Amino acid sequence: MDPDERELTVTNLGAIDPLGLGYIAVEWAIRIIMLVVVPFRRSPEAARGWLLLVFFLPIPALVLYLIIGRPTYPRWRKRRFEAAQDLLARASREIKHSQHCCRPDLPERFLPAALLIERLGQFPTLGSNSVEFLSDYDGMVDRLVADIENAADHVHILMYMFADDLTGGRVVDALLRAAERGVACRVLIDALGSRPWARRLRRRLASGGVEIERALPVTFFQRRSTRVDLRNHRKIVIIDGRCGYIGSQNLIAAEFSPGLVNRELVARTSGPVVLEFQAVFVADWFLETGRVLDSPALFPHHHPRAGAVAQLLPSGPDYPISGAERLIVALVHGARHRITITTPYFIPDEALLKALQTAVLRGVEVKLILSRVADHPLVGLAQRSYYDELLRAGVAIHLFHDGFLHAKHLTIDDEIAVIGSSNIDIRSFLLNGEASLIIYDRTATAGLQAEQALNIARGERLAPEQWSQRPLLAKTVENVARLLSPLL
What we know:
Layout: H1 3-14, H2 18-37, H3 44-56, H4 58-68, H5 75-97, H6 111-121, E1 126-134, H7 137-149, E2 154-159, H8 166-180, E3 184-190, H9 195-207, E4 211-215, E5 231-232, E6 236-239, E7 243-247, E8 262-263, E9 266-270, H10 274-289, E10 308-315, H11 323-334, E11 338-342, H12 350-361, E12 365-371, H13 377-384, H14 387-393, E13 396-400, E14 404-405, E15 409-412, E16 416-420, H15 426-431, E17 432-440, H16 442-457, E18 459-461, H17 464-468, H18 472-483
Helix pairs in contact: 3-4, 5-10, 6-11, 7-8, 11-12, 13-18
Keywords: Cell membrane, Membrane, Repeat, Secreted, Transferase, Transmembrane, Transmembrane helix
Domain PLD phosphodiesterase: 228-255, 401-428
Enzyme class: transferase
């Protein structure tokens, strides 16, 4: 080597930036450490998504992981949830022991599902319930306002999004009138879901004697703060412990997202199962306020009459076992003839994907009713990445065209109906507090199937040949989004 070249090489080596070397070392240290940490107590799908992000963007991935990497609450909330579990257990015992809430005799084929739900969420099956499905958006608000106007003792509302717009304002006005009559009104809203309206809502309701609290507030540098991605996504209303609402609809205008009209479904219920709604509200109220609601009027007796058998399944990261996911997988495995699932977000884990494919192989007719338009583009891309293998397996996919189908429900054979707030995605399975009403009744299931048939008629069935011919770029983008689906 020429002396001048040797001198130049030595000079270049000496000019290497120590900060640059340190940065590279830090990135590789993060990759190696996260390779060990991430897979611990995490599904292979979730680990894959995190490790992909870590490989390409190690430092941002580490920051994100420290913020939302583990679906766990602070220690103080875990202790409070243990106390809340005692409240749920006590309420469940009271319901079971009531002479008017006796456990009904279920056909043997329903017993495994009923036992699973009870062990996951503590609540038993209860008979003598009536269920009415409300798909008209404004009509549901009309019914709710009318029920609040007739309330005699209390109104409890647990809502992810409660807006101070014209739609939410109608409910606010009804609550203020009820409070003026001496009805105890309590409202629990998710701090993030209702954040744009929370301040005005609290001012209006509190000034009229309505108690209002925020669930899971996020505040920086305060002990009582919680993680931004863990939300209370339940949508429940209880009136006098006798009438209840559960489903997908928030208290907000149907067109709150520009260009999208939300299509929803809510179950208006009466009967003993409303007491299970009540128990969930009482537990959530205690979790957020530390105050126990123990008035006997909250759990009135329901006199026996003809009606459907039903039970409630609450689920979320507070619970040690993922309830919503296990319920759906178990019901799919138990289906004998037909399964119809309606959801706005379909990003299944491996267990559910295999269960649906296996159901088709067993001769079960499987239908998915999904929205053609998506309100979250990345989620929509990830969802579409599953269509190919589902279509090849024989699953029928129906894309709803008339607005954004935000309803969340399913039917199994002609005998079991499920409706609530839970989507078919990792967020609902692991990160959100959800509630699902399970109904063991042919009449109620037929009613829900009629709603499903209307949704199918307002869309089109996806043709496998047509879907397989979409551009390669679209397939590539969808599959990249799928790799990140555990983070969505």
